[in-house]
Amino acid sequence: MKYALVTGGSRGIGKAICIKLASDGFYVLINYRSNKTEAEHTLAEIKNNGGDGELMQFDVSSSEEVRSVLGKWMEANTDKHIEVLVNNAGITKDNLMVFMSDDEWNTVINTNQHSFFFVTKQLLQNMIVKKNGKIINIVSLSGQKGQPGQVNYAATKGAIIAATKSLAQEVGKKKVTVNAVAPGFIKTDMTSQMDENMLKSLIPLNRFGEPEEVAEVVAFLASGKASYITGEVISVNGGMYS
Ligand code: NAP
């Protein structure tokens, strides 16, 4: 059995990634922060499709919670190896920088950026020792081209792109790959307040993307088919930016 951990697997892109990885044969650890009901729906859909997994509740922005929950799971399951990590959990708190509060800045940095360090660090040593690991970071178009109103969010996604490239160079010799997937506008709760009809004119493919279209790329990077790809950022943005 192959094991994968997906952070923020209860909803949106993370949910689609959990379902796709399970259909590819992974036992999926579905992380979520507070929305247990939605996380249970993800697991139920996996099981209905003949797959398997379990829920794992922790706040990715808390090093203590990551250590106690994920760390304890690892201690109790030394015979199992989490070979795929998808750092997907993320939030926005948009505001023009001139009006941005310390809380809007800190919460987004903690959730989107510090989480990468906490969760990846927890799994990295095993991946290196086993010479088997695939780390996939969900970043964003905002982190590639910048976006007004998202100085905090874009800063985190740009940082994770740089971290992806750096870590890829650290661990390549140990057969651990590190890549990023950068979605544009994808139909999830995060974009539900946006006006697709107005914004689609900015998108060459003339529509928002579906979470499943991001999950396909993640599943490719998590598979043996992507064995010679590392340090890359793959855009899934309908042609908005490359
Ligand atoms: P979403 O629908 O709002 O779902 C967010 C997920 O992250 C939920 O499962 C949520 O768990 C989880 N989460 C949030 N904070 C967490 C925390 N502190 N600890 C653990 N889990 C946490 O978002 P989405 O649109 O699917 O976005 C997923 C990723 O794609 C994010 O990194 C986002 O930045 C990136 N992205 C999205 C878009 C887009 O257009 N949607 C575009 C570019 C990049 P609960 O359900 O428990 O709250």
- End-to-end separation in angstroms reads 36 Å
CATH class: Alpha Beta
Which homologous superfamily in CATH is the superfamily?
A: NAD(P)-binding Rossmann-like Domain
**Biggest sheet, spatial arrangement of strands:** 3-2-1-4-5-6-7
Short description:
This protein has 242 residues and is an alpha/beta fold. The protein contains eight helices and seven strands, in the order βαβαβαβαβααβααβ. It has one domain: 3-Layer(aba) Sandwich (Rossmann fold), CATH 3.40.50.
Overview of the structural elements:
The chain is an alpha/beta fold. It is built from eight helices and seven strands. It has helices at 12-23, 36-48, 63-76, 102-130, 141-145, 151-171, 196-199, 211-222, and strands at 2-6, 26-32, 52-57, 82-87, 133-138, 176-183, 233-236. It has a seven-stranded parallel beta sheet with strand order 3-2-1-4-5-6-7, sandwiched between helices. NADP nicotinamide-adenine-dinucleotide phosphate (NAP) binds next to helix 1 and strand 2. The site of NADP nicotinamide-adenine-dinucleotide phosphate (NAP) has 30 residues, from helix 1 and strand 2.
List the helices and strands and how they pair.
Elements: E1 2-6, H1 12-23, E2 26-32, H2 36-48, E3 52-57, H3 63-76, E4 82-87, H4 102-130, E5 133-138, H5 141-145, H6 151-171, E6 176-183, H7 196-199, H8 211-222, E7 233-236
Parallel strand pairs: 1-2, 1-4, 2-3, 4-5, 5-6, 6-7
Helix pairs in contact: 1-2, 1-8, 3-4, 4-6
Residues 7-8, 10-14, 31-35, 38, 59-61, 88-91, 111, 138, 140, 183, 185-186, 188-191 line the site of NADP nicotinamide-adenine-dinucleotide phosphate.
